[in-house]
Write a structure and sequence with these properties.
Layout: E1 7-8, E2 15-18, H1 20-26, E3 30-35, H2 45-58, E4 63-67, H3 71-83, E5 86-92, H4 100-105, E6 109-113, H5 117-131, E7 134-135, H6 142-159, E8 164-168, H7 173-184, E9 190-196, H8 201-207, H9 230-240, E10 243-247, H10 249-263, H11 269-285, E11 291-296
Parallel strand pairs: 3-11, 4-5, 4-7, 5-6, 8-9, 8-11, 9-10
Antiparallel strand pairs: 1-2, 2-3
């Protein structure tokens, strides 16, 4: 499957293509890109947002709520608007919040809270309990998250049987769901998580110790003092003989530019770190004769 043979997933979510230019540059057998930037709001969060909004409507909730630093909130706002469901979104006041106008433009009520992303999640959960809203926060309805990302794995597997899959790590839910999906059909690709070197629980627990914490505009999607699905992500890494890598912002920028030039996409720099993960993984394990899938997400698409 080449770039010209790229295919979209069910419901138009995701685009999987073979990146032959990257293969030549890196000297590896096969590289595939699952580019989630083609989704309605530009990221893989569309997958779980669609699932959670559907669940909220099915169960008769008056509205849905989530704590977010950007992408997930936009996805929840988008699918809630389509479904005619009220969305109340909590955001950390001091974050970059570049996508805040999009949430408001889609009629979501946005509440800014002091502190970190984790505190925005706590505020959203308290709001859900008090007002009887559907709680779409990480870990609150985990089965829905895992099912949505499991379907993503089934779609990837229908196109390619991967040797290893490289996934951006924040809360770890994407990694955990993908692994459950692959396992359900008897596949066991090595699951490789890639994240910021400066503040992610999964990275800290994988290596031990206490890594430096430095939150920036670029690494916000990956920084997580508490990764809500850390156990599931680490289980995927352990059971698949995978690995976890952390990189700095300058690497993210270089990888994003290389993906633009070599693969013709414009990924979110934080997610482009999966390319650095592939390079390091191949060198570390001397594994060039494999089929590697890079999961990348994009940015704003709703206009």
């Amino acid at each position: 499957m080449s770039e010209s043979e790229a295919g979209e997933g069910p419901g138009g979510l995701g685009r999987l293509f073979r990146a032959t230019v990257l293969e030549e540059l890196l000297g590896v057998r096969e590289v595939y890109v699952d580019y989630e930037g083609v989704n309605p709001t530009g990221t893989h969060k569309d997958r779980i947002a669609l699932a959670h909004v559907g669940e909220a409507v099915k169960r008769g909730f008056p509205g849905i709520t989530v704590g977010t630093c950007g992408n997930y909130g936009v996805a929840i706002a988008y699918y809630s608007a389509l479904a005619g469901l009220k969305a109340v979104i909590f955001v950390p006041r001091d974050y970059t919040l570049e996508r805040l106008p999009e949430m408001k433009a889609m009629s979501a009520e946005v509440i800014e809270v002091p502190g970190t992303y984790e505190e925005a999640v706590r505020a959203s959960r308290a709001f859900a309990r008090k007002n009887g809203f559907y709680d779409a926060n990480p870990g609150s309805n985990r089965a829905v998250d895992i099912s949505a990302y499991s379907e993503m794995a089934l779609w990837i597997a229908s196109r390619v049987n991967p040797t290893a899959v490289f996934v951006p790590l924040g809360n770890g839910t994407t990694m955990a769901g993908l692994w459950e999906g692959f396992r359900s059909i008897g596949l066991a690709p090595r699951m490789v998580g890639v994240t910021t070197a400066f503040g992610n629980e999964i990275l800290r627990r994988f290596y031990g110790g206490s890594p430096d914490f430095a939150e920036t505009e670029l690494n916000e999607p990956l920084v997580s003092e508490r990764s809500f699905d850390a156990d599931g992500a680490l289980k995927a890494v352990r059971e698949s003989n995978g690995y976890v890598f952390g990189f700095a912002d300058d690497t993210a920028l270089r990888c994003a530019e290389l993906m633009r030039v070599a693969a013709g996409i414009r990924p979110l720099p934080a997610s482009a770190l999966v390319l650095a993960g592939l390079v390091k993984f191949v060198r570390k394990f001397n594994l060039r004769n494999g089929r590697f899938v890079l999961v990348l997400t994009g940015g704003a698409r709703v206009g």
